[in-house]
Structures are given as structure tokens and as C-alpha cells.
Amino acid sequence: MCGIVAYIGPREAYPVLMKGLHRLEYRGYDSAGICLLNGDIRVFKCKGKVSDLEAFVAGENISGNIGMAHTRWATHGEPNTINAHPHFSQNKTIALIHNGIIENYSVLRSELKNRGYTFTSETDTEVLVHLIEDIMTNEQVSVEEAVRIALNQVIGAYAIVILAKEFPNKIIAARKGSPMVIGIGKDEFFVASDATPLIEYTDNVVYLNDEEIAIIERDKELKIKTIRNQDQTPYIEKLVMSLNEIEKGGFDHFMLKEIYEQPRSIFDSMRGRLHLDQGTVTLGGISDYVQKILKAKRIIITACGTSWHAGLVGEYLIEDLARIPVEVEYSSEFRYRNPVLSEDDVVIAISQSGETADTLAAIDLAKSKGATVLGICNVVGSSIARATNAGVYTHAGPEIGVASTKAFTAQVAVLTLLGLLLAQKKGTLPASKFQKILVELDSIPSKVERILKLNEKIRDIATIYKDVKNSLYLGRGYNFPVALEGALKLKEISYIHAEGYPAAEMKHGPIALIDEFMPVVFIATRRGIYDKVITNIEEVKARKGKIIAIVTEGDESVKKLADHCIEIPDTEEMLIPLLATVPLQLLSYHIAVMRNCNVDQPRNLAKSVTVE
Ligand code: M6R
User: In terms of domains, do 327 and 406 share one?
Assistant: First the structure.
């Protein structure tokens, strides 16, 4: 996920672009860059935040009325200055910024290399700008036509802006799958990933649709055409937004925004990996290690916090689907307890930030004993991504709220793909069952959308329980890790004591805590160990505990017992964590807000724990 902004008009472009970049920085801050067109075409870019770019260009000639800028969240290629956008074409007359992922970039890259193009970066983006130059040179067409032809060869997602030295009064912008809005002012135009950079200049906006190209020229009407060369009439909308509202993309907190991003982040984590039509799963990052995993005596998953909870779901998934033994270890314990490890073991380290010190130390230990170490990380180029032998990125986008939300579901999505991939290679699942799970997995983003519509109802429940002192979260099977994650979310942001437990373990101790003041959150979905959980609910009810239950849509049995039911769509048992976690995130969020807690930066915590 990156942020892009562009401007053409009578103003100096630089301050408009810089202010815009600051507003878009939540989308990524691995590097930043700017391109200004003023006779010459000049690019300034550097690793780091937008403020680093400002320091970098200080003293440079930055005047010009047309320009574009980019703030990067690295996906392909580590976060450094070379991989920062804008990227130049070979003859340095065209510059391009991009938000998205070009999935077929390696094929395009080889073809362009064969035609004599030299690549300076490791990004997927650079193929686009060379391809456009190649088409312009060989087919003698305008830049917009070259963009159109190029985009017909591209598979993946993009929001791009292009400036060409030859066309000093023109911006070309296009999108598919990544957002893009065009602001129309008096004699000026703005382009951005969201409306935040243009809100103080205009309220006339056009949201570009997928596969549309905008040709933006000063003193001319905005022109839009599709990549199939059909002219489109720009649909101008009024922006109804105030500056305060949009600081976090319209959300009060990053955490809420990130909860709402989950349909997209789960989708992005599966994109190009789940092939429904072919009935297959691919994980390019670990393709060279699949045989090693299949032959492994066991898999050890190591992680901390929420990532450890995702690992627990991973254990259930991989054992269930691929019949390979899995153990899940807290990195902080594993690193100090002299575990038995050998070259036959495969260790999978899971981390959102890729910087967690305990997990890094666990990786070092595993490597020193000869184990193969793979990573599941969200941050490209992070220490854990570099320290592992290979890995799979979760494409959740930057997670800014300290409480992990969309990273968890992205990790579980990737672990599900891994379980399915191993099952397919090992032949442990009947083809029909495999395809059924694939179809269900593909529908998870839309089912999460449906759960997000329950927000108001969940807020009403939060109102009732916001002042409690303690709470229990109970689940069995796949819902046990969900209970742990629900409890962690509540305690870390609302400071209410919350414990997650396997539901059946309640009678071995925690049941002593139950009285009329104790809310117990049950994850009691119909698939899995359902009847037994109902018995546990009865036991709580008999002791006057308050019951909040996550149930399957249409459930009747739990409804008769629970004080509150939150209904989620039905799905395969192994996919329930991807759905059941979402209402628990919302419940914690609303309780924390009602208690006036600092939701995004809870006390004593940090987003990445780089110390022991
Ligand atoms: O970046 P990581 O996934 O390695 O971080 C692990 C934990 O520190 C993290 O999940 C932490 O527990 C979160 N605050 C939970 O919301």
C-alpha cells in the first residue's frame, strides 16, 4: 500500500504535493519521492519518511506547476532509495509512480531485458515505465496511447501517475484495483490515493473506475478513456468531508480503519495465490522449500502476541489439512529453553512488523541448529524477512494501530493457503473437499464485509459492558485461538482484565470466577465442537454469568441461553477464525473508546517490540 499525489495548475506544485504526502503517510513510510516538471524533469527521492524527503530537497530548485509525489510501503524490493518512486524510464524522459502490485512483472522484466532495458531497482513498478517508453519508441504513439497499450499487458493492481518531459502540460493517471481520486479545481487538477490531499482546494471530484485512464491537461476538460479505448464521461461528485474527518481516512482511529480494511487486506493476501479457476494454491516465496516442508519431521511455528495466536490457528490448519505435526512456540520461551531441533525441522516465524526481538532470536537459534526457517511477515525488507531462508508476505498494508487486527487475519489467510498447498501436494484431501474450501476461502472477504455491518449492534453491547473489571473468552477447536485473541484485544486497549481459555477447561478453575458481574464471551459457531460448548454455556448461565455469544447466522440453540448473540455467516470450520475474530475486535474497540482509552497507542505498548 502506497500513497500517491499529483498536481497541475497555477500554484507551485511542491507545497501542495508535500502536504498531500503527509496526509497519505499512513499508507506507508518506507520511502518518499517527488517529481517536478519545469522544462526539465527532476526526481528527488530517499528512504524514510516524508520529513526525510523534505530535508533531502532543502536548498534544491523545487519550483514548477506540475508534479507528482509518492510515499511507499514496500512490497517488491527492500525499502531503500533506489526502490523509492518515482521511477524513470531508460532515457529518463518519463517518470512514473505506482500503488499496487504488478503480478506478471517478472515475465515483462525478462522480455524488456532481452530488448536491452536495464533495471535499476528491484521493484515490480519499474517494468511499467520501461514498457511505456518501449511502446512510445517502437510504435510512435502518444504517451497516453502507450500507457493504454502497456496496461493491456499488465496483470495485477495499479494506481499510476505518469509525467513525460515531452508533454510538459499533461498528467496521465490510471487505476485498477487501487484507489484514485481526481480533484477538479478552477484551472487546476489534483490526483491522489484518497481525497485528503485535495480537500482544501476543491470539492469537485471524480473517482476513477477500474481500467480507466485519465488524461489531465491544463486549460482543457478532463478526458477519461478505458484501456479498451472507449471514451467515458467523467462523473463529477461533490466531496462531503471535513478536514478533521479525513485525517485517518475518515475513521476516528487507525484501529477502526484497519478493522474495516480487512476485506481488502485478506483479499490482497490471497491475490495471485489462490487460483479458483485452476483449483490450485501457489506461494511463490517458498516454492523452493515446499518439498522440504513436506518431508519435515515436524513444523515449529514461533511468534509473539497476536502473531502467536495466528500460529495456533496455523497448527490446527496444517495438521488438519496436511497431516504434518506442528508445534507452536512463544519465541521468548523457545529461545531460552534449549529445544530439540535438527535439520529435519522446518521453523516458521510469524511477525507483522518483522522486527520483534524474541522472534528474531528464535530464528537465530533455529538456524544455528540447522533447521530451515521460513517467515510470514507483513513488512517487506524487515529484519525477520531478511533473516529467514524464504517466506511469504502478508499483504495487509501498514498496520499503525498498536493493537493488531488486519495483520492477524492476513496471517491466518496465508497459513490457510499454506495448509491447502501442503495438502494438495501431499494428497491428504479429496479433490472435491479441497475445491470446496478454496471456494469458501475466496468468499471470506465478502463475508467479513457483512460482519462489519454489525458494528452498531456490537457498539450497543459494548455500552452495557464497558465498566466491567474482568471478562472470560471461551472457545474450542479453531475457536480457542479466537478466544485468546479476543481477550488480548480487550485487555491491551481497554485495560480490562480478560482471559482466553479453552471452553472445557473452565470447569478446571476459572468457573470459580463466574458470578452475575462476569461477562463471558463464547465463540459458539455451529460447525465444530458445538454441543459441548452449549453445555459450557449452560454451566455459566447456571451461575448467573452474562453471556455474549458469537454464533452462526440462524442459530437457535445458543440464542435461547445467551444475553447477546452476534451472528456471523456460516463457513468451513477451519475458516471461522477469519470471521469470528472481527466482531471481537469491534467489541474491544468500542469498549476502549467508551472508557476514553488511547486506542491507537495503548499505555506501555509499542507497535514493534524490538527489545526483550
Ligand atoms: O510484529 P509482531 O507480529 O512480531 O508483533 C508481535 C506482538 O508484539 C504483537 O502481536 C502484539 O501482541 C500486539 N500488540 C497485539 O495486538
Answer: yes
Strands lying side by side in the sheet with 372-377: 326-330, 298-303, 345-351, 372-377, 390-393
609 ligand 1 Cβ < 6 A: yes
Together in a domain, 162 and 31? yes
CATH number at residue 39: 3.60.20.10
What gap in Å lies between CA 455 and CA 179, rounded to an integer?
24
Please report, as a single letter, which amino acid is at residue 228. R
Ligand 1 center–CA 3 separation, angstroms: 25
Q: Check if 304 has its Cβ closer than 6 Å to any atom of ligand 1.
A: yes
**372-377 and 390-393 beta bridge pairing:** parallel
CA of 352 to the centre of ligand 1 (A): 7
Q: Are residues 171 and 24 in the same domain?
A: yes
Q: Can you tell me the distance from the alpha carbon of 191 to that of 186, in angstroms, rounded to the nearest whole number?
A: 14
The phi-psi region of residue 311 (left if phi > 0; otherwise alpha if psi is between -120 and 50; otherwise beta) is alpha
- The verdict on residue 607 lying in a domain is no
Q: Is 290 in the pocket of ligand 1 (CB under 6 A)?
A: no
Q: Is residue 51 one of the residues assigned to a domain?
A: yes
Question: pLDDT digits over 19-78, tens only?
Answer: 999 888 867 778 999 999 998 999 999 999 899 999 999 989 899 999 999 999 888 888
- To the nearest 10 degrees (0 to 180), the angle between helices 262-270 and 444-452 is 170
How many Cβ atoms sit within 10 Å of the Cβ of residue 233? 8
Residue 361: CATH number of its domain: 3.40.50.10490
Decide if 124 is inside a domain: yes
Number of H helices, E strands in the chain: 20, 27
pLDDT one-digit tens code per residue, 103-141:
899 999 999 999 999 999 999 999 999 999 999 999 999
Quote the pTM value. 0.73
Question: How far are the Cα atoms of 139, 366, 465, 517, 525 from residue 546, in angstroms, in the given order?
Answer: 71, 45, 10, 7, 18
Task: Catalogue the active-site residues.
Answer: 2, 607
Give the pLDDT confidence of 255-314 residue by residue, as tens digits. 999 999 999 999 999 999 999 999 999 999 999 999 999 999 999 999 999 999 999 999
Pair type for strands 3-8 and 390-393: unpaired
- 407 and 532 inside one domain: no
Report if residue 325 sits inside a domain.
Answer: yes
What domain range includes position 120?
A: 3-242
